[in-house]
């Protein structure tokens, strides 16, 4: 069963604490790896939260860093234990972007730019099914259903608080969507009408903002592709820039990288249509689809 503890977030927090201990000790990751007879990449993955951390790993690292505070060691050991529990998404089996789901589950806000498709958190079930079948044509029907179920479960963050953190309200979502995503036929015209109507409906929630980037605006800061910026309620959790890939995803956490993408997103928001004009624009495209149905 899924745990009430978010293992992804626990790994990130534990990794940051371990990195701080190493830096306070004045050691490099290479030096630590030599002491423990492990690869430098293992130390790096432990510190960036991309690898599961065992209590033995924590014990060995605390020995290297000569940590004497028993309360600190116990706290780190508990975080390591929590990080090995399973989140709700593990019930669906092997999910290729499980790290992202873990981050999204505990995020306070998400800013995303989508150039080709409707953002996953704003998709209807039938749109998601058609999209997954088209994007991964060799995927078995059972795996298509699994991906869609996970996507629908993720959408609960737009209407519910996160159980791991009762103080964390619905996810604050800001989505800039390129016109191409609205005009790309995923399924038939009727399906697209229902999807775009749902998009308008969701955008009317106070914590959801949708803006469209029309073709006529030409080149803009998002032409390089999709990305998302996740921010968290805990000040100790660094902001993450997520860039989706075909075989692997990219997570950027360095302050300089996050700053560049944040500034780029501000330019996107400034250039895109305002909220009211966006709804008018989407309604116009709905009418165009309706003419095709007739």
TrEMBL record:
CDD domains: HTH_XRE. Pfam families: DUF5753, HTH_31. Gene3D superfamilies: lambda repressor-like DNA-binding domains. InterPro entries: Cro/C1-type_HTH, DUF5753, Lambda_DNA-bd_dom_sf. Coiled coil: none annotated. It comes from the Bacteria. Residues 18-72 form the HTH cro/C1-type domain. This is Transcriptional regulator. It comes from Streptomyces amritsarensis.
């Amino acid at each position: 069963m899924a745990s009430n503890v978010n293992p992804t977030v626990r790994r990130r927090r534990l990794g940051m604490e371990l990195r701080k201990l190493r830096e306070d000790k004045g050691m490099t990751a290479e030096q630590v790896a030599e002491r423990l007879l492990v690869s430098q990449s293992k130390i790096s993955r432990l510190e960036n939260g991309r690898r599961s951390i065992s209590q033995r790993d924590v014990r060995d690292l605390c020995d290297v860093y000569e940590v004497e505070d028993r309360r600190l060691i116990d706290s780190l050991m508990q975080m390591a234990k929590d990080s090995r529990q399973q989140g709700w998404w593990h019930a669906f089996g092997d999910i290729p972007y499980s790290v992202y789901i873990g981050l999204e589950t505990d995020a306070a806000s998400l800013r995303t730019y989508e150039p080709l498709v409707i953002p996953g958190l704003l998709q209807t079930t039938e749109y998601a099914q058609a999209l997954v079948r088209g994007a991964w044509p060799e995927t078995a029907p059972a795996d298509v259903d699994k991906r869609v179920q996970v996507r629908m479960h993720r959408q609960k963050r737009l209407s519910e608080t996160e159980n791991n953190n009762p103080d964390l309200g619905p996810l604050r979502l800001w989505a800039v969507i390129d016109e191409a995503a609205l005009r790309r036929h995923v399924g038939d015209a009727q399906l697209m009408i229902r999807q775009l109507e749902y998009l308008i409906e969701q955008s009317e929630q106070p914590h959801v903002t949708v803006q469209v980037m029309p073709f006529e605006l030409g080149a803009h800061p998002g032409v390089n592709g999709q990305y998302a910026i996740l921010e968290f309620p805990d000040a100790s959790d660094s902001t993450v820039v997520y860039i989706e890939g075909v075989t692997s995803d990219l997570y950027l956490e360095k302050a300089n990288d996050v700053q560049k993408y944040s500034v780029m997103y501000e330019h996107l928001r400034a250039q895109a249509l305002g909220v009211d004009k966006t709804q008018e624009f989407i309604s116009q495209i709905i009418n165009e689809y309706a003419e095709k149905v007739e």
